[in-house]
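Form 12-C: Joint structure prediction
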Amino acid sequence: MNLRRSALLLVLAAGWGVAAWLLWRSSLPAYRLPHLSESALFPAAVLAAARHYSSVDRLFWLGATLTQLAVLGVYSRFGVRWMSESAAGPVGTGMLLGMIGFALVWAAELPFAVLSVWWRRHNGLDGSYAQATVGNWLLLGSQFVALCIALAVAMNLARVRRIGDRWWLPAAPVFVGITILLAFVSPWLLGGTRFDAPYVAKLERTERVHVPVRVMSGFAEPNAFATGLGPSRRVFLWEPIVEAPFTPREDRFVLAHELGHLAHNHIWKDIGWYALFAFPLAYLLALVARRRGGMGVPEAVPLVILAYVVLQLAFLPLRNVVSRHMEAEADWSALRATHDPAAGRALFRLFAVETKDDPSPPWWDYVFLENHPTLLQRIEMTQYWAANR
Amino acid sequence: MNTGMTEHPVRLVVKDDYRRNRLTVFFRLLLAIPHLIWLFLWTILALLVAIVNWFATLILGRPPRWIHRLLCAYVRYSVHLGAYLWLVANPYPGFAGEAGTYPIDVELPEEPQVQVRWKTLLRLILVIPAYSIAGVLSGSFSIPGAALLFPRRRGGSKGYQAGGGPGGGFLGFICAILGWFASLVTGRMPKGFRDAGAYGIGYGAQVTAYAFLLTDVYPSSDPLAMLETVEPPPAHPVRVVGDAHDLRRSRLTVFFRLPLAIPHYVWMSLWGYVVFVVAVINWFATLILGRPPRWCHRFISRYVRYQFHVLAFISIAANPFPGFTGRPGSYPLDLELPIEPQRQKRAKTLFRIFLVIPAFFVGFAVEFALFSAAFFTWFVALARGSAPWGLRNLMAYALRYLAQTNAYLFLLTDAYPHASPLEGVDAPAE
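Section 2 - Result
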């Protein structure tokens, strides 16, 4: 029995490894980035301001994360007390306990959110106290919907006698299905106005991706993202990035980067990675839930939520490695499409000014928080491309 | 548990017999013009005297007797006039506000009462929640004549707001408009509209008495206590059941009540689309068969009950998080619906969508009252960990009316929604 089990585990691990290798493959060459000095690339004042801002911002993240863990730790111990506030049956009660857990986390993190806004404003960046408090309170509702769907799936499956503690096996594909559905539908819900720039059509031809490009207003930060599957694929540019001080050349580089994501099927790959992580994650949660009677009973929910957050944190470095790899490929794709490393270089230097992002953060920040290559690495890539084109 | 059910010193007395003279009903607003002018003048005087009264009560600890009597007469007069205008009573009222002279009357403390000074000092602030609720229930009669003194500008033109009170007081106003048509046709004021109007007027009187320092007992929006002298309406097949004394509320779930309800909103919307389709099928089937098919009746009953549970949760009329299925008996504040489909008149079924329109108007006002009450309950429940008895009963009334309207619309019953704030009772056996 043990041998068969070990063999099965080995096969599954090998399958996981092969799938991961297939997803990891990219158009990036085997490269070694040149080492550049950040003090030569960024003015001393910009560098100092970015480092100063980021160092405190990191502390807020650390404080909020530790608070979150502490609150959920206490909640996992005492959360079942709130079962008496429900008349919703086992699954509904589980949902309530889940939502209360996240509500408490929100309340505990609120001071950090407010401090973070203050710190942004103190450093000349935009930030809204109303958004950080009342706005986030309302946004909790959308988190709750996602949480309720996940708990409804997991708990109902766990309550099916034939499935029981093996709920994670059917649940993981359901979660992946929901993710695919959301990725497919969400671009149509985001709105935005059409972005008309003379270089769009040419870039789309070069990247062999023909999708709508839209500008979204109401954001304070310069940013952009690509999303959607098949006919719903879109590129969204946040308004500040198409306005001064960003130049059309830099915008062209940004757009090429986002089209690069779509050209290399990064959305599908992202879902693939999600699927790869979903199975072990759900399995570990099932193991944790067993300590409180299994996923089918609401008593397990507070502990499962704590385990979920801890596992998310544990998987974060790995997810960041994957994300940075895809972002590097999109940068590479942008360099090949635009043949304009100077624009890329100028763009990344400008980011340090506009977002106060530290060009070379400390290692733990890099491991836990950076889902893009650092600004310095991205500039080094433009240099590498220019030297090897 | 203290439910606040102790008798309020300001009591509504209802001796109306529902009979209405069609001629005076038709010209009611015009006939009231002399009264409105008189009320305007009296309001100026009352407001000036009320200011003097405030200083005097702060110093003496109780209002001077002559001021108390003057303001009592003013409150009584405004109740009489409100009842006349809102068609809650039939005869033309006198101008003096004498006690016991009108079918809708109010009993007030005969002598000035000793009042707590800090309550007196803060009275204008303390009265705001009650005044807002009164505005929703009874309109301008919350502080009688206030709308006459302080007309609001709306859309650039000068004019009186319907109902006049803060929040746009609709219940009394809408019941009066609908009652006007009904009284013209039948010569009688429907009991539901009469009771709803009387309730609003009574509450408005309590608020005014509190604002004018005639009592320092806070107004109670409990409809059962307000209409204790009124006979209850006949039993309705859709009614609210549950422990009315269950006032405990969890502060945590109260604070996060709206986000916690969002998954329910999503589920309710999705379920609502299916119910819409089933309701159309049900309508055709009921027209043909004379009663709804059992599966339609049960499916829609579940939905109507579920909606009731969710609204009770959102409005803090009940405490626990509700289930997602609308199962009967699953929630402490529950809705009783006909278990089996009932035989229904085909003519009523055919025109159901039109027949329900007046109930929708009342439902709109009642919903406004529900959410106003919920708003203030939120603060109270956060502070005290329990819901105020009066507001809880007001919300139960609103929820019942909305559920009756839904049940009527969806052909779960052909009994028309009853606007009376009192729960119906079965007729005694012969």
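Section 3 - Comments
The beta strands of chain A are 86-87, 193-194, 213-216, 224-227, 234-238. The CA atoms of residues 317 and 368 of chain A lie 5 Å apart.
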